[in-house]
Fold these 2 entries.
Entry 1:
Amino acid sequence: MLTISQLAATAGVTVRTVRHYHHVGLLPEPERDASGYRRYSAQAVVDLIRIRTLADAGVPLARIDALLHAQPAEFAAAVTDIDAELQRKIDQLTEHRRRIAELASGEALVLPPEVVANLNRMRSLGVSERAVRIERDVWILMQALEPHSMPQGIRDKTASFDDPGTTRLYLAIGQSLDWDPHDPRVDRLIDDLDAWETEHERDSSRPRNMASQLVFSRIVEASPAWQRILDVLAHRARQRRTAGHDG
Amino acid sequence: MLTISQLAATAGVTVRTVRHYHHVGLLPEPERDASGYRRYSAQAVVDLIRIRTLADAGVPLARIDALLHAQPAEFAAAVTDIDAELQRKIDQLTEHRRRIAELASGEALVLPPEVVANLNRMRSLGVSERAVRIERDVWILMQALEPHSMPQGIRDKTASFDDPGTTRLYLAIGQSLDWDPHDPRVDRLIDDLDAWETEHERDSSRPRNMASQLVFSRIVEASPAWQRILDVLAHRARQRRTAGHDG
DNA sequence: TCCAACCCTGACGTAGGGTCAGGGTCAAGC
DNA sequence: GCTTGACCCTGACCCTACGTCAGGGTTGGA
C-alpha cells in the first residue's frame, strides 16, 4: 500500500496532480487508512501511468478516460482528432511568430514603412514629437477603418514634402497645438490653411465618414486651438461653396 | 463620442474584450454619461487598435502595456523574448504530436511492440483476457520502474513461448485466477510452478525491490488464489535455500 | 406605449495544475 | 515524553483571455 506521495513519485507526477485527477474523476479515490490518508494499490500506479502517457502526448484530461477504454477504431479516430487540434494550435502560434517578427518597433506596430518614413521626415523637419504622435494616430485610424485609401494617402503625403510651402505649414501646425485658441497666430494659421485648401482643392466642410470623424475627434481632443481652427475652416469652406452656387 | 459596442466594432473585438482590458488596467476606464454608460474618445480607438496589434501577434496581455511605451532597444529585446516563448510552446506541441502519432492503440500506449506481440501470442494460446490484462500491467510497471531490465525481460518472455511446458503453464495460470484458494487444482499448480522455478533456477523468496513488490501487489490484488500461490512458493523457496545451506 | 437593442455589474467556467493557509499525523532522535 | 521535520488532509485562490449567463436599467424608433 502506497501513500499519495509514493504513488506520485512512482508515476513521476506531483501530489497535487494526483489529487487533481481525483477531483476531475479521472483516477478513482482509493480507500483511506485510520488517519484519513489515501492508500493506493499497484493498480492505481498502472492507471496513473496510463493516464500520464496520454496526458504527456497532449490529450486533454477530459478525453483521456474515454480513450483508455476505447476500441482500436474509436481510439484511432480520437487520436486523429486530437492531432488535428494540436496542429491547429501550432499553426496559430506559428502565425503569431510570423507577426511578431514584423514588429520592428513601437511605431511600426501597425503602419507600413512608407508611413513610418514620413513620420521620421516630419521629425527631421523639426515638427514636435506631440504633433508626430497625432499624425501617427491618424494613420492608425486610416489603416484600421479605410485601408483601401491608404495607398493614395501615402502617395499624397510623400509628395507633399517636395513642396516647401506645405512643409512650412507642417512646422506651424506642430507648434500651433499648444497655442491659445485666440492667439493671433492662430488666425494667421487659419488664413494660411484656408489658402492651402483652396490651392489644393480640398474642402473641409464636406460630410465626414466614420474614419474622418474619428480623425477630427483625435485632433480636437488634443488641442483646443485646433478645435477652433477646424471649426473656422469648415465654416469658411461652407461659405465659399454657397457663394459658388450663387455665382 | 462612441459607445462600448461602437468602439469594439471599430477595433474588431468584442464588448467583453474591451471590458476585460479595463479590468486588467490595459485600457483606461473612460468617463461615463448620465446613464452610467462608458463614452469613448478617438484616442481610445487608437489605443485599442495598438493593443490588439500586439495581442494578435501573441504578446501576453500582461506585457503589452510595457511594450507600448518601450524604447526601440527594449522593444526588440522583449520581442525576441516573446518569440522564444512562442517557439518553446510550438516545440512542446510538436513533441505532443510526435508522441500521439505513436499511440497506435490502447495496449501499445506504453509498451514496445515486442511486448504487445507477446500479449497477443498469449491471447492466441487461449489465455484469458483478464490474465493478459494483468500481464500487460506488469509490463507497464516494469517499463516505468526498471526500464533497463526490459530488453532481457522481453527476450526471456519471447523465448519462453518455444517451450511447450511453459506455455501450458501460462494457460493454467490464466485459468487459476478465478479459482478458490483452497481448490485442489491450486495445489497441483503450486507444485508445477515450484518445479518450473527449480528447473529454471528462479527463486521467488529473494528480497523484492520496488518494481517486483508492485508487480506482486498487482497480482495479489487481482486474485485470492494467487495470494496463496505466491505465499506458498516463497515459503518453499526459503526452505530449499535453508536446506541448501545446511547440507 | 411597446419592443428590440443596447448598457451595466457580478459571477462562474474554461485546462492543468501551483501555491498558500491552517491543521492533523507519523517516525526518529533526545 | 517531547520536539522536529516530513508527511497528510481540505479548502481556496491564482494563472490566460476572455465566453456566457443572470438580472436589471436605458435608449430610440414604430
Entry 2:
Amino acid sequence: MLDINIVRNDIEKVKQAVFNKNEKANLDSLLEIDSKRKALLIECDDLRNKRNVTSKKISKLKSKKQDASSEIQEMKGVSDNIKQLEVNIKALTDELESILLNIPNIPASDVPVGKDPTSNVMVKTWGKRKEFSFTPLPHWEIGKELDILDFERAAKISGAGFTLYKGAGARLERALYNFMLDLHSQEHGYTELFPPYLVNRSSMTGTGQLPKLEEDMYRIPEDDLFLIPTAEVPVTNIHSNEVLSAKELPLHYAACTACFRREAGSHGKDTRGMLRVHQFNKVELVKLVRPETSYDELESLLSVSEKVLQLLGLEYQVLKLCTGDLSFAAAKCYDIEVWSSGVNKFLEVSSCSNFEDFQARRSNIRFRDDDGKIKHVHTLNGSGVALPRTMIAIIENYQREDGTVEIPEVLRPYMNGLEVINKRKKSSQRIISFFS
RNA sequence: GGAGGGAUGGCUGAGCGGUUGAAAGCGCUGGUUUCGAAAACCAGUUGAGGAGAAAUCUUCACGCGAGUUCGAAUCUCGCUCCCUCCGCCA
C-alpha cells in the first residue's frame, strides 16, 4: 500500500508508475473521495468536540443536582448528526482503502521502463554451458526411465500439474532442501523457520497477493483460509502489527515450504514435466530491514541465492526486471534463471525483490528508530531457491549418455553418499545403512 | 465438539456509566546528587488522524465489530484469540 500522502502530493508520479507496471488504478476518484472524506471528518470532529464538552457540563450539573434536560435534548440531535456523519465517513474510508489496496508499488528509480520481459536487463551470467556428445533428454523422459518421477500417477491421484517423486527422486528433493536450508542457516546466518501452510485473509492482503490475485490462490471457503503460494506470506507476516526495536533489525529468515498455485492464468503453458506445477517446494528467504539498508540487503539476498546454484554447479543468468514485468508489490526485482539442457532453455528459479515499505504498510510492521520515531520497515524476499526447476536442471544437466544421472558433489552427503542415480536397480538405491 | 474463565499502555495490574487516555508498581529516558557508579529524589515516558507557519488546539483507539445512552474501558449482542476442565484424535 502506498502512503496516501504520496498520492496526494505527487499523483503524476503514481500515475506514471501504474502505467509503467501495466496496471490500472482509480487515482482521480481517490483524490476526490479523499477530500470529501476530509471535509466530513472535520465536521464530525467539531460535533464530537461539542458533545464531549457538553457531556462534561451535564455531568457537572447532575452532580450538583441541577437540571440538564435542555443540554440532553440538544445532545440528542448532535448525536444523531454524528452517527449519520460516521456512516458516511465509513463508506468513504472503505472505498478509499479498497482503491489504495489496488494501487501497485512504485518501481525504484533504476528499474528499466518496459512493457514486457523483452525489456528486462541481463545483469550477469555464471557458469559454463554443459556440452553433450549426445542429444540431452528432457527431465520427464529421464525421470520416467529411471523411475524417479511419475507424472501419470500424480495426475491420477490429484490431476494435471502435480508431481510424484519416487525413490532416489524423492531423496534428491529432500537432499536439495536440506542442503539449501543448511547453507542459509549455517553459512549465511538466516534463522530457519517452519511456518503454517494455511494463512488467513489478512496475511494474504498484507503481502499483496490479495485482493488482486485471489483467483490464483487455493482457498478453503469454510474457514476463509488460503494455501500459501510462497513462504513469503506467513514469514513476512510474522511481525504484522508489531513495533520492532531498531536493534533487532535486520531480521533474516529462511523457510522451506510447499507452495500452492492454481496457475489460473497460464493454462496450456509449460505443461510438460514439472516446469509449472500446482504444488512445489521452495526455500524462501525473507528480510525485514531498516529502510536505508534495503537496497544493500537486496544485493546480498541475490548473492546468497546465487550461491546455491554455484555450489550445485548450475549455469545461470541474472535479470533485472523491467517495470512491466515487476510484480504488483515489488519496487525492484532480480530474477535468477538456471540453464537446463533437456528443455533447452533458462528456467526461473528465484525472484529477489525489495518491496520497500509497501508490504510493511499493509501488514503494519514497524520499528522504533534511534531517534524514537516509529517507522515502517522495508521487506524483501527471494527464493533460495525453488525446487522443481532446480531439480530439472540437475537431472538434465547431469544426465549421462547411459541414461544415468550424476549427483552434484555438494548433495552427496545428503544422499547418503550416492554418486549416481542408476536405472533398473530398486528405487531405494540401497547404500550403506547408517541405522545399523 | 461440550462447560467455564479471561483479553486494559513496554510489562504486572486497578478501574461505582460522567474531568480515566486511563491509578499504582516495574521498566525505560532525562535531570539533581556523586570522583564515578549504585541508591535516593524530581521530571518525562501509547499510537493513529485532522487544523495551524509555529506555539498549540482537536478527534479516535482499553482484543475486533455492532448496539443501548446526552455520555461506554465500564451495560447488551456477535466474532476472534488465550487459559482451565471434559470428550475425540494424528
